[in-house]
Amino acid sequence: MHKTNKKKKVIALFIVSLILLIHVAFAQDAAPVDPPETVDALETLNPLEPTLPFINVNIPEYSTTTELTIEGTTTPHSIVKLYIDNSPNPTAQQTRDFTGEDGIINFLDIFIGHTGTTHTIKIETTDLDNNINQEEFSIIIDIIL
Q: Going by fewer Cβ within 10 Å, which terminus of the chain is more open, N or C?
C-alpha cells in the first residue's frame, strides 16, 4: 500500500503542477483588456432625454414693414405656434396636417408691431411625441417715411 499512496501523491502533485503551469501560461499570454469605451456614448445618448423637434426659420433683425411672412421647416407633423411680444395666446397656429411630412412652417403676412420698437417673435413646435421646443427672435420695425 505504501507504493499506491506514493503513486497517488505523485499523480496529484503532477495534476496540481499542470494546472498551475496552464494558469501561468494563459495569464502571461493574455493582453490586458481595457473596458469598452461606452461612457461617451452613454453620456451623449440618454434614452430618457427626448429629442426635441427642430426649428429652422430665418427671421430678419430689421424690417421696414409691420407685417412679415415667416417660412421654414420643423419636424414633420408638428404643431407650430407663433407668439408676438410675449403674448400668452398664440398669434397664429399651424396644425399637424399643415406641417405634414415636409414639416412646413408658413405664416403669411403676420402683423409684428408698430415701427420704432423692438419686437419678440417666439416659435413653439410640438412633435407627435408631445416634445416641445421653442426659439425666440428679436426684430426691429423701422419704417422710413
A: C
Of the candidates 71, 48, 56, which has an alpha carbon nearest to the alpha carbon of residue 131? 48
C-alpha cell at 51: 429629442
How far apart (Å, rounded) are the C-alpha atoms in residues 58 and 72? 7
Which CB contacts under 8 angstroms, 24+ apart, belong to 113-121? Answer: 113/66, 113/84, 113/85, 113/141, 114/66, 114/141, 115/66, 115/141, 115/142, 115/143, 116/141, 116/142, 117/141, 119/84, 119/85, 120/83, 120/84, 120/85, 120/86, 121/59, 121/70, 121/82, 121/83, 121/84
Kindly report, residue by residue over 54-95, the tens digit of the pLDDT.
999 999 999 999 999 999 999 999 999 999 998 999 999 999
Quote the cell numbers at residue 69.
Answer: 411672412
| Global pTM exceeds 0.70 | no
On whether the CB atoms of residues 46 and 79 are closer than 8 A, the answer is no
Report the amino acid identity of residue 69.
Answer: T
| Helix (H) or strand (E) run with residue 57 in it | strand 55-57
